[in-house]
Amino acid sequence: MTDTSDGPADAAAPSRAGRPSRRSVIGWGGAGLVLGAGAAGGTAMTLAGGSEPAEEAGAAVPFHGEHQAGIATAVPDRLHFAAFDVTTRDRAALVQLLKDWTAAAARMTQGHAVGDGAFGGLPEAPPDDTGEALGLKPSRLTLTVGFGPSLFAAGRFGLERRRPGALVELPKFPGDNLDAARSGGDLCVQACADDPQVAVHAIRNLARIGFGRVAVRWSQLGFGKTSSTTPDAQTPRNLFGFKDGTSNVSGADRAMLERHVWVPPADGPAWMAEGSYLVARRIRMHIETWDRTSLREQEDVIGRDKGEGAPAGKAREHDAPFLKAMLPTAHVRLSHPDSNGGARMLRRGYSFTDGTDGLGRLDAGLFFLAYQRDVRDAFIPVQRNLARNDALNEYIQHVGSAVFAIPPGVLDEDDWWGRGLFSS
Ligand code: HEM
């Protein structure tokens, strides 16, 4: 894929192929004009000549870096997550797919259309880009790729010896009611953005590029982030109405990220250094039952109060919790690092509502996403504890599950997702 539209002049100029890029179309769309590659640096230059934080501008999040974006970066409000089965048996075709995906992701996250764009090309061929994101801002789109355990199976792509020890299949937890059709996957792509159309466009175009090499196994749309990586921002609320993400690993806390989220080189394998591991769980929340539960019981179940979000017996949201003031079955008490040998993870989940279930109940819940250095020391022990004892279990059920190794970031234009895994 050739980039036809980089540089500060491109907002006004047509691309090399004579077609405006998605970003140049954006440029004429209104006051929030994003000019050139400067947007990728974290601030968007506006026509007025000022600069505003990427947070507010719907700007571009840098694609290249030591770590993949979409983990420690600020959490935008919309998600489209897709798990893929690799349908080709040809290793070279899989490698080419990852290169093609990387090139497309580098463009889409910066607000460009895929390849030569959505219109103006050969009338006889389908356009490179599907077009529905034309005129939209980059919207802090991040695309994060992962590799599932099944990709490393013997007899597939010769990767069985490269499988990280930490990429274990999750055990069956008490109460799990997992739907195989909503679980697993050889590959995953997490698309987060301020604008749902931008996230959906990204997954759709990656699926389209992958035609004949991968097929979508399952996907999940999410809205209303339930955790944030920016502790100074207002804590979002989940569908039970409680603040969620109060006590989370902050995306700005380097020491915590290094200790609990990024894989250090010493953990091995070498290709996973600076990567992470992702657990995805589709958790159905029985909204109607919860809504008939008294406020006192709701607060006892969580271990925090509903209004302020303060831990039981404390006044303010960010007061340190006194775990013994909570019921032994309270969710916060059971999930707290002090109850789990210090285990921590970076939660980054979203609420979902997929209509109703045929019995008049909302098919709604939490699409739980958590990044960690090693699932064996984080999600697995914490979820074991929760699955056995959490009072919340009366109101929730885990119905989908997947785990992925998240490789490190793409360093520059010559690099691609998974290069370390497939090289040497
Ligand atoms: C639908 C399911 C769930 C709901 C509604 C829920 C809700 C909450 C709420 C309201 C809090 C308190 C605010 C906060 O600090 O974020 C919390 C904390 C937490 N939850 Fe969950 N949660 C759910 C599932 C899970 C799962 C599956 C895990 C991990 C296995 C988990 C791990 C945690 C952790 C680690 C904390 C922070 C505890 C602390 O350090 O104080 N949660 N959750």
TrEMBL record:
UniProt keyword Lyase present: yes
Domain Dyp-type peroxidase N-terminal: residue ranges: 68-223
Any Pfam family the entry gives: Dyp_perox_N
Cofactor annotation: heme b
EC code: 1.11.1.-
PROSITE patterns: DYP_PEROXIDASE, TAT
InterPro entries (alphabetical): Dimeric_a/b-barrel (IPR011008), Dyp_perox_C (IPR048328), Dyp_perox_N (IPR048327), Dyp_peroxidase (IPR006314), EfeB/EfeN (IPR006313), TAT_signal (IPR006311)
Subcellular location: Cell envelope
Low complexity composition-biased segments: 1-18
Domain Dyp-type peroxidase C-terminal: 235-410
Keyword Phosphoprotein attached: no
Root EC class: oxidoreductase
Primary residence: other
Keyword terms, alphabetized: Heme, Iron, Lyase, Metal-binding, Oxidoreductase, Peroxidase, Signal
Source taxon at top rank: Bacteria
Role this protein plays: Involved in the recovery of exogenous heme iron. Extracts iron from heme while preserving the protoporphyrin ring intact.
Family (UniProt): Belongs to the DyP-type peroxidase family.
This protein's name: Deferrochelatase
